[in-house]
Each structure stands twice: as C-alpha cells, then as structure tokens.
Amino acid sequence: MEEKLEQPINDLLKFAANVNYFTKLKPNLKDHNSLKTDITITCYNELMQTIFSLIRTNISMLQNEESQTAIDAMLLLEIAVQLLPNDEMELLDELHKIL
User: Fold this and answer.
1) Helix H or strand E segment including 84
2) Residue 47 and residue 83 in contact, taking contact as beta carbons nearer than 8 Å
3) Does the pTM of the predicted model rise above 0.90?
4) 82/28 Cα distance (integer angstroms)
C-alpha cells in the first residue's frame, strides 16, 4: 500500500518543485518559527494611508460585533502594528526638536 502512495507523492513533489510554487512566503532568518513576505509600498504617505485604512476597517468591523469579525479585526490590527514605521518616528522626534 505504501509503495502505491510513494510514486504519486514523488511525482507531486517533482511537479511542485518544477513549477516554482510556494514563492510568496520566505523563511524568516530572525525567527525560524515564522515566515515573511514583501509588501510593495511606494512612499511613507502610502504606508500611513494603508495603516489608517486597516484601522478604519477594524473600527467598522468591530461595530458589527460578530465573533468571526473580532478575529479578523485582530489579524488586521497585527498587520497594522507591523507596518508602523517606528524607527522613522524617532527620526521625526529628533527633527522636531531641531526645528
């Protein structure tokens, strides 16, 4: 029985390797228990608009107060937190002091 399954599994693995699937997520070199992906953002203004949109979407979703909606809102908020440009905010604080 195992021999009958082994060949189709090997064929599937060869096919997947040749077609170049699984390219969206890449290993996270800093945290081996997670994966990472790239998001293309053209400027800091677009980044902030994206974060604001995520937060506004969460507010709207949470007003409906459905159980699945709360889980979706939590995931979107986690993305928004990861997108926040923390280092750049420190730079803005220093520039503000100078001005």
Assistant:
1) none
2) yes
3) no
4) 14
